[in-house]
Design brief:
Elements: H1 11-18, H2 22-28, E1 46-47, H3 49-52, E2 59-63, E3 70-75, E4 78-85, E5 87-92, E6 95-100, E7 104-107, E8 113-115, E9 123-129, H4 135-141, H5 146-156, E10 164-167, H6 173-187, H7 194-209, E11 215-217, H8 220-238, H9 244-251, H10 255-266, H11 270-288, H12 293-299, H13 305-316, H14 320-329
Parallel strand pairs: 1-3
Antiparallel strand pairs: 2-9, 3-8, 4-7, 4-9, 5-6, 5-8, 7-10, 10-11
Amino acid sequence: MTDKGAGYMQQALLDQLRKITEEERKILDGEAEVDKDLYTSGRDFTVDSRKMLKEGRLIAVRTHTRFVYFPAHRHNFVEVLYVCEGSLTNIIDGKKVVVNKGELLFLNQFTKHEILKAGQNDIAINFMVLPEFFDVAYSMTGNDNMLADFLVNVLRQDEERGEYLHFKVAEVLQIQNLLENIIYSLVNGEENRERINQTTMGLIFMYLVESVQYVEMRLPNQYENMISMTTLDYIEQKYRTATLTELCTRLHLPMHVLSKMIKKSTGFNFKELLQRKRLNKAVELMCETDLPISDIIAAVGYENNSYFHRVFKEHYHMTPRVFRVKNSEKEQVRL
């Protein structure tokens, strides 16, 4: 790919995508509505993968039909909408979602949406993708990546829950270049490149996982719950050395974004959650072992003894030594 500003597609490919299609020509000649027979054989407007993808193919691409309102419909595949020029306005479960140049909208199977009329300079690409196409992307992002798990699992479900992922990644040059590669391949009918295209989508996913601060999704609570569960699990496993910086790196989220999400979903900030875990572990060791207090302090991750004593006293209203004696009297300490 040539070196260019983010969101700017090669002119030759863009000119190719701008061409008026046969369907658009009919609309310009007076056809008032979308010809549903091009998309579905059923009564309800569910766009059918059998009409849109060649047999045996996992992905196909077409330019979005301009000059006409696209009525409410579903599709029995994952649709990925990418805007090359201009913008495209979707209505998803009554919510207006405007996809601007360089942005991606992932629409899950059977997500119902409608699209307002696009003008001549609103150039968008529809990727029509069967869920198994994402298997390669999933394997490339790694098995221990909670965000990749979440994103791929969202796209694998086929329930009518109106799910979408809107990635505002116009400034991420790597994603723009990879999308251009895959569009060029599909538009020019390079039939033998499906594995390459799957790998390219895998690379796109890897960059998307690193760009989750730019994502807006239909089920924000589900996403926030996943983040809070990941945070609590991380503290549970790594309480001795856990840091917010390390967790931000793992989740590919800026510190201010992650801090806000943790506070919103748990009611505590990261430092408070970590401190609660360390104190609980310290109390457990006091009550179940005869380790010296200084060793317990080190074992739970505190480097400063006086700081631990101050925090402990604030929380339990007594010193660690008094706490241990009181609990020893209740025969809760095993010596």
